[in-house]
Design a protein that fits this description.
The structure is a homodimer. By secondary structure, chain A is mainly alpha-helical. The longest helix of chain A is centred in the C-terminal third of the chain and has 18 residues. Chain A binds a DNA duplex through helix 1, helix 2 and helix 3.
DNA sequence: ACCCGTAGTCTACATTTGTAGACTATAAGT
DNA sequence: ACTTATAGTCTACAAATGTAGACTACGGGT
């Protein structure tokens, strides 16, 4: 695994690259400024830090550099959800679902969705 | 929600107080040292910072101070899982479950547990 | 060949976090 | 009342983070 831990703002930059890539620095800046209003320099710094942390890479194509993610969204997601699960539910998924269910965070539709998913799994594993 | 954001180590201290409280500083230190090996001073600092952040409170009882959580585990959990859910699943629970299911993070037993939970909810809401 | 803009690098600085030493106040026991 | 343990406060300092200015270099157009 490895994956140096990313800070909040770094993740925000990464988000942009997940949603669309490769992008030039300028494009990243453009998109992020819409979302955050951060200064251009700030975003450049974040890009640099992400490259250092090997969370993204850049490649020269023609005259320009293009940035793309190295860490997948998937990987980060796993990492974080695993963390949450371990911290609060001893790694058990069921109690997490139960928890949300109890708090009425699940609509009827949600419940059906989940049941569908579970059915599919059971089916597949059968 | 107010809740100033807590750092990793601060959360660790809070964990101890969730599992058992009220506790004196000494008791917190004792328990945390078992888990982390942190120096006494470090833990005192963290306690102080938690008090400043109003994540915990202390009260004098007899000669001693006793610490207890102000933020509930519940609240922090909600906060964090909400965050995760929003960042990765647009707030939707079903895709999260699906995700874990796909990754085989769910055993047959888990699945049955979850189904049971969902059934209960549906029942209750019916 | 020269200038310009876009992008990359270097430097900076306040805040937060991780980690801990040193000093102090106070309750409890003798 | 005095000592001592125990806990609380102050200070410290490096690394990480949030945020940004200044300077530079290179590719593209004229």
């Amino acid at each position: 695994m490895g994956g140096a831990k990313l800070s909040k703002s770094e993740q925000h930059v990464l988000d942009v690259l997940w949603s669309e890539h490769p992008l030039t620095a300028g494009q990243v800046i453009e998109r992020l400024q819409q979302l955050t209003g951060w200064h251009e320099s700030t975003i450049k710094t974040l890009l640099t830090r992400l490259v250092e942390k090997k969370a993204i890479a850049r490649r020269k194509d023609g005259g320009r550099f293009f940035y793309r993610p190295l860490l997948t969204r998937e990987a980060v997601l796993i990492d974080e959800s695993e963390g949450l699960l371990n911290r609060f539910f001893e790694g058990q998924m069921a109690p997490l679902v139960a928890h949300f269910a109890e708090r009425r965070k699940l609509s009827k539709h949600d419940i059906e969705e989940i049941e569908k998913v579970l059915a599919k799994i059971k089916d597949r594993d059968a």
